[in-house]
């Protein structure tokens, strides 16, 4: 059995409510990330609405060469996320816009990622585009206990197709600490923010129902809710339906801590549209992660991951994420979203 690699961080961390001078301590770190991969299809036609476009003879002329280029670019990004904190990169990585197990197999076996021995959890949903969410995890850090897809019932008369992406729920052990993870990709804003809002509120309510069950059983359950919510940190679906707060030292029972408010308020984002940044890709945490004095993992920091090679440097979309396609034209980029990540720390006793 492989031992978990030991990477220590020495930090001065002040504990809220104490007057003592902070002493240097060593901490173990775990990087938790989320990445919308932007239409990560294989090149075969499987009968889905958008699937035929992503074939060699489809409108996007999606060849094996284009697919392999896409895989290389995605792996380049994933291999680098969070390595300034932990050389192993993400212990857990939520994904959106994944077609099937075949593309995930190709991803985790790529030479840039193979040494990490990533495994994955994925279920096919009834999404009209044939894309789903998934979870990659490094088995040296995270052990799966159970998983299941959660169906999202859209409200009657919603503008969306009859089905949207399922939510992936995974329970596992993060270095022997029980953690619940929900991976989301909520209905888009296509047709207008307000008109499409009921679909996202329905998705938020589906997650919240399950969170309430967990918290009623154990108020300090460690829960991570991540995804492309297609809503901002200040949107009703996030604040009211999911019950989030940006006040880490004044979190109420059952609330989720949202660390992305500050970045959102200063104009940072994970995707751009019509010269405006949005921060749809978020990672939220239950109260159990906000106490630095408890012996398990606690929240340390969060960031949008972006490197120069991931960014358009010329033209009308200068500064935007460099996407794979612009319409039917292959751009040879990475994704139309930047990944986001958080760092969890646990004191070495």
Strand content: 25-35%
N-to-C SSE series?
Answer: EEHEHEEEEEHEHEEHEEEEEEE
The Cα radius of gyration reads: 20 Å
Characterize the biggest β-sheet.
7 strands, mixed
Q: Would you summarize the structure shown here?
A:
The protein is α+β, with helices and mostly antiparallel strands. It contains five helices and 18 strands.
Structure description:
The protein is an alpha+beta fold and 349 residues long. It has a single domain (8-347), classed as 4-Layer Sandwich (Deoxyribonuclease I, Chain A). The protein has helices at 64-80, 101-109, 193-217, 236-241, 261-265; strands at 8-12, 24-40, 90-98, 119-122, 132-137, 142-150, 167-174, 177-185, 223-228, 244-245, 256-257, 271-273, 276-278, 281-286, 298-304, 325-326, 329-330, 340-347. The strands form 4 sheets. Strands 1, 2, 3, 4, 5, 15 and 18 form a 7-stranded mixed beta sheet that branches. It has a 7-stranded mixed beta sheet with strand order 6-7-8-9-14-11-10. A hairpin with a 2-residue loop joins strand 7 and strand 8 (177-185). It is globular, with a radius of gyration of 20 Å. The two termini are 23 Å apart.
Keywords:
Deoxyribonuclease I, Chain A; globular; single chain; 18% helix; seven-stranded mixed sheet; 5 helices; alpha+beta; 349 residues
Write the layout of secondary structure elements.
Layout: E1 8-12, E2 24-40, H1 64-80, E3 90-98, H2 101-109, E4 119-122, E5 132-137, E6 142-150, E7 167-174, E8 177-185, H3 193-217, E9 223-228, H4 236-241, E10 244-245, E11 256-257, H5 261-265, E12 271-273, E13 276-278, E14 281-286, E15 298-304, E16 325-326, E17 329-330, E18 340-347
